[in-house]
Write a structure and sequence with these properties.
This protein is mainly alpha-helical. 80% of the residues lie in helices and 0% in strands. It is globular, with a radius of gyration of 25 Å.
Length: 288
């Protein structure tokens, strides 16, 4: 009878956590609203005429949809061509940097080369160097090989820069790779190349997917080195186009908001498409 009279303890935590859950949900909702508020304000002002902006301010709804700001930004900056430059440069950097990171990390983490700790520390140090230190020697070398004012110079530079971080991360992961799997593959007669693509790569594929997403977004948002290396308008990228518009039409706030919105949409679409891949890669890495 005493056991039957005892209430089920599984229901107690749910009652106690009920108000706490609602409070956490309310705080998270307020935080999310605070984080997206700049995007909402930019969206309001992107389709607002300059006269409407001057009279009503940035927080009012537009009296009518004003498309001239989008058209002006697109035509004056040749945005379509700059958008294509950013897409192919960021895509190639993401692919090349992940491949180079995997090969380097495989040699360091599993190949057990001498001075492994020093090599990993060297890659970590390379990530800490500011771009201002690198820009002059990079520009000089690009001139000597006739790659200045070429998107391929940006691809090569950021492939190496992003691969430094990727190698540091993947080398730390592969350093703890189970030796039993490698020994079993060697007993079955697999070569080093077969071990990499049939044993190692399937396990670290989620991590490589996350790195590829980050490398794409990081390269897309790069400004300083592309600004120095790409001097002609046809070779420039989206961030440079936006900066040039800010200097050209400093007082036309709706046009600047329209340009910022157009510059943000591609990365937002890319993130939404690969959101599941990013979440899955982080979850699998955490579980492993």
């Amino acid at each position: 009878m005493s056991m039957l009279a005892t209430p089920n303890p599984a229901h107690r935590p749910a009652k106690r956590r009920g108000p706490v859950r609602w409070l956490v949900l309310a705080l998270v909702s307020l935080g999310a609203l605070f984080m997206i508020s700049p995007f909402l304000i930019m969206l309001l002002n992107a389709f607002k005429s300059p006269a409407d902006y001057s009279q009503s301010g940035p927080l009012s709804l537009p009296g009518s949809f004003y498309w001239e700001g989008v058209v002006t930004f697109w035509t004056r900056t040749n945005f379509g061509w700059k958008l294509w430059n950013s897409v192919w440069i960021s895509t190639l950097v993401a692919l090349f940097a992940v491949t180079l990171s995997l090969l380097s990390a495989y040699a360091i983490g599993i190949g057990r080369v001498r001075g492994r700790v020093w090599l990993v520390g060297l890659f970590l140090l390379a990530n800490m160097l500011p771009q201002e230190v690198l820009v002059y020697p990079l520009f000089t070398m690009a001139q000597k090989v006739h790659l200045n004012d070429s998107g391929w110079s940006i691809v090569i530079i950021f492939t190496v820069i992003q691969a430094a971080f990727g190698t540091y991360l993947l080398a730390s992961v592969l350093g703890t790779f189970p030796p039993a799997l490698l020994e079993a593959a060697e007993i079955d007669g697999a070569s080093r190349w077969q071990i990499l693509w049939r044993v190692v790569f399937p396990i670290v594929r989620p991590t490589c997917s996350v790195l590829m997403i980050f490398f794409f977004i990081w390269t897309w948002n790069e400004f300083f080195i592309p600004l120095v290396m790409l001097t002609s308008s046809t070779a420039q990228t989206v961030p440079i186009a936006l900066a040039a518009m800010q200097g050209d039409r400093l007082m036309d706030v709706p046009t600047l908001n329209a340009g910022t919105l157009m510059s943000l949409i591609p990365t937002l679409v890319f993130f939404l498409i690969f959101q599941r891949t990013l979440t899955r890669g982080i979850t699998v890495g955490a579980v492993k």
